């Protein structure tokens, strides 16, 4: 991030509107849960713990059903449902913990959205495995990329309007629906989704896809209405002063190649490895979404090209020039590269922001009052000059270093 971006990020204020039906019923649970969290536990640590749980429980399903056709054991579905519930709960209380400990920062918002972008991919894959949607690969492709695109669109409208909006039926409702799908698959078996609906020529899983499609159309319409109305920038532009339609280009550079490579593959790389394929392209989309969130929070123009696109480019070139390397091997290389690139980018951005704002990512540094400093003495009761490396006065030391207020400096010096 440039110095200008870091400065604008420091001035960013979180703006959100939520009309979610379930959120108001879950607030008491979230309030109780956060009250049990120790004050020393950093909000970002809560977020990353939830994401790790979500990823690990989904990978258990992927292990048993890598093609989204095989039947996973019943306990794997329950584990995945619990993992998603844990992630949803921890994701809901990280902001509460930040306000509770007085550690709310723009980095927390960015970190939260970054974890959500990754979680969206794994949640979509787990839902497809639960209903064995791999038997309909085209529908699985459509369903997963719909979920990924909808998450991107949510931040697209935030980039345009400056406010992240949640409708009456949105993320929380979708998460609980998927938890229900996992529990149904656990108790009745995934084959329940293959039951044919009387008088209709399709099964239950296809009906589920149709309902999801209708919901996606509704959400796309809501996003389009916000975007096309115009942004809060000059002459109806985005928060960065760019065209409100500009974010469609980075998204297209992910979705369009994914579709072309899928259709042109002579080895049917997607049909044979659907989970691996969606995971690779989903993480590319997560990286692009992260850049959109950064562009929104720093009020900066979003770059169209990204280093994570090297992965899909390898697949495309391998097909175009008909190289001898099997496509599924290139797909694995693509996934490894995208994971490395996403982690590298996230780490670099977090470190730059932490350095700029003089904060810690996964640690809360307790502040120290002047009374603590005045009580610094040896075992004989004699006053000892404080050691600036002493953890008890680290907070005051940081305040002296970072404070821009002359009055604050004089006050702290007098107390010392």
Can you walk me through this structure?
By secondary structure, this protein is an all-alpha fold. It has one domain (3-357). The chain has 16 helices and 2 strands. It has a two-stranded parallel sheet. It starts with a helix and ends with a helix. Pathway: Phospholipid metabolism; phosphatidylcholine biosynthesis; phosphatidylcholine from phosphocholine: step 2/2. It is found in: Membrane. It comes from Rhodnius prolixus. Keywords: Lipid biosynthesis, Lipid metabolism, Membrane, Phospholipid biosynthesis, Phospholipid metabolism, Transferase, Transmembrane, Transmembrane helix. This is diacylglycerol cholinephosphotransferase.
Distance between the termini: 37 Å
Number of helices: 16
User: What share of residues is helical?
Assistant: 55-70%
Strand content: under 5%
Number of domains: 1
Radius of gyration: 24 Å
Average residue pLDDT: 85
Which tags fit this structure?
416 residues; mainly alpha; 1% strand; disordered C terminus; diacylglycerol cholinephosphotransferase; transferase
Brief summary of the model shown:
GO terms for molecular function: diacylglycerol cholinephosphotransferase activity; ethanolaminephosphotransferase activity. This protein has 416 residues and is mostly helical. It is 66% helix and 1% strand.
Give the SSE layout.
Blueprint: H1 3-10, E1 16-18, H2 23-35, H3 43-64, H4 74-101, H5 106-130, H6 137-161, E2 164-166, H7 171-188, H8 204-229, H9 248-264, H10 269-272, H11 274-297, H12 310-320, H13 327-357, H14 370-374, H15 394-402, H16 406-415
Parallel strand pairs: 1-2
GO cellular component, one term: endoplasmic reticulum membrane
Subcellular location: Membrane
EC number: 2.7.8.2
């Amino acid at each position: 991030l440039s110095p200008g971006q870091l400065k604008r990020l420091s001035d960013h204020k979180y703006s959100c509107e939520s009309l979610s039906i379930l959120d108001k019923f879950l607030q008491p649970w979230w309030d109780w849960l956060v009250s049990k969290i120790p004050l020393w536990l950093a909000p970002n640590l809560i977020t990353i713990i939830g994401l790790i749980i979500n990823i690990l429980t989904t990978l258990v399903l992927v292990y048993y059903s890598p093609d989204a056709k095989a039947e996973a054991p019943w306990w794997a579905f329950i584990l995945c449902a619990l993992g998603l519930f844990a992630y949803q709960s921890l994701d809901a209380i990280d902001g509460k913990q930040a306000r509770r400990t007085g550690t709310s920062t723009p980095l927390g918002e960015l970190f939260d959205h970054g974890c959500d972008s990754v979680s969206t991919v794994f949640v979509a894959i787990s839902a497809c495995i639960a209903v064995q949607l791999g038997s309909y690969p085209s529908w699985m492709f459509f369903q997963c990329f719909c979920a990924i695109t909808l998450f991107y669109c949510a931040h697209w409208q935030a980039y345009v309007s400056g406010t992240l909006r949640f409708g009456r039926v949105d993320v929380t409702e979708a998460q609980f629906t998927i938890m229900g799908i996992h529990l149904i698959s656990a108790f009745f078996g995934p084959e329940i989704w293959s039951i044919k609906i009387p008088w209709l020529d399709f099964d239950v899983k296809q009906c589920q896809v149709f309902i999801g499609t209708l919901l996606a159309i509704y959400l796309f319409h809501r996003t389009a209405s916000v975007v096309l109305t115009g942004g809060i920038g000059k002459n109806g532009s985005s928060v960065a002063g760019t065209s409100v339609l500009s974010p469609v280009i980075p998204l297209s550079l992910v979705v369009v190649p994914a579709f072309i490579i899928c259709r042109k593959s002579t080895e049917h790389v997607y049909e044979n490895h659907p989970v691996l394929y969606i995971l690779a392209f989903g993480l590319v989309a997560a990286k692009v979404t992260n850049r959109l969130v950064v562009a929104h929070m720093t009020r900066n123009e979003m770059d169209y090209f990204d280093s994570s696109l090297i992965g899909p480019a390898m697949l495309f070139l391998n097909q175009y020039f008909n190289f001898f390397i099997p496509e599924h091997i290139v797909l694995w290389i693509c996934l490894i590269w995208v994971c490395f690139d996403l982690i590298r980018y996230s780490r670099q951005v977090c470190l730059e922001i932490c350095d700029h704002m003089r904060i810690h990512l996964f640690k809360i540094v307790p502040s120290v009052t002047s009374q603590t400093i005045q009580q610094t003495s040896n075992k004989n009761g004699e006053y000892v000059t404080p050691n600036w490396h002493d953890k008890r006065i680290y907070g005051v030391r940081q305040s002296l270093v970072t404070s821009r207020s002359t009055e604050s400096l004089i006050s702290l010096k007098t107390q010392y």
